[in-house]
Amino acid sequence: MTSYVLNRLYSSGGTEIIHGTLEITDGVVHHFLTDGFEPLEAALETGEVVAFADCGISIALPKRGSDGKQDLKFALCNIDGSVSGFLRAALKDRREINMVYREYISTDLAYPSKILRYKVKSGSVTATEAQIVAGYFNLLETLWLRHNYTGDFAPGMRYQ
Fold first, then answer.
1. Is the pTM of this model over 0.70?
2. Which of 33, 53, 99, 140 places its Cα 20 to 30 Å from the Cα of 155?
């Protein structure tokens, strides 16, 4: 049923609404935001029900390519300053910040219809908005083969 409704929404609209939500976390503190004028209460993929605070969110999706840099740009409203203060402190302390973008169909808030995970690369905060640059996967900062072949990891190797 959900896939039929989702396909219809993406192709021609309908009476349902797609709610875009954003979770910003450093592993300890979680901020749940929804794009709109009213708060939203919905269940995460884990089954936990959370309250998403209303916030103006603008998303600029990247072009698809194979260059390893597919940056997304998020702009969040900074009216109350709660997210901007968190971002400013986390970026200053160089903490790892993760974001999860979820979409919900207004008639089914029990599970997200889309889940996208990002890692925050950089950001800036002004008096009116918080700008965040995030990516799907940071290929350029990934070790190839995922291991450093050192004497501790591979005792049979010898440096020359």
1. yes
2. 140
